Amino acid sequence: MSDLVIQPDVIMLDGSRIEIIDASNGVYIRTPDDAPLATNWHGPYPDQSSALSDCRQRRAKPALTAAELQNKKDHGYYSIVNGIPMVLHHCAWTGATILTSFDLVSPS
Questions:
Q1: Among 81, 69, 79, 80, residue whose Cα is nearest residue 107
Q2: How far is 69 from 71, CA to CA, in rounded Å?
Q3: Backbone dihedral angles phi then psi of residue 3, each to the nearest 5 degrees
Q4: Distance between terminal CA atoms of the chain?
Q5: E strand residue ranges, 1-108
């Protein structure tokens, strides 16, 4: 008995390679370039649009208020790398803590 091998479709989303499989129970996606952090499939999603929207939202650059930024500074989670302000941030897509740039926003 042979195993069925499904070749995923590959697209670019915000500069990242995304693999997509449309299975009988929904759409699955993964970001192989995030290896070894996020090689697992995410899903099932009802459709490709929902899958990509969730991926984009969970991988988004953090939006911090001045108070949130100050809190990160107070706890040592802020640094400047090659002239770029960065913070330690929990990535909701990979589950990893990453050093990333951020957007400073006004409180809502």
A1: 69
A2: 5
A3: -80, 140
A4: 59
A5: 9-13, 16-23, 26-30, 42-45, 63-64, 78-81, 84-90, 97-100, 103-104
Cα separation of 61 and 7, whole Å? 30
Residue type, 25: N
Token pair in block for residue 63: 């939006």
DSSP string, 49-60: HHHHHHHHHHTP
Model-wide pTM > 0.85: no
Q: What is the mean pLDDT of each run of 10 residues along the chain (108 residues)?
A: 71 92 94 78 96 95 97 97 97 91 93
Strands 63-64 and 42-45, sheet pairing: unpaired
The pair of structure tokens assigned to 40 is 């697992």
Q: Which tokens in the block code for residue 68?
A: 């949130």
- DSSP 8-state symbol, 107: -
Contact yes or no for 41/25 (Cβ under 8 A): no
- Looking at residue 1, its pLDDT comes to 40
Q: How high is the pLDDT of residue 87?
A: 98
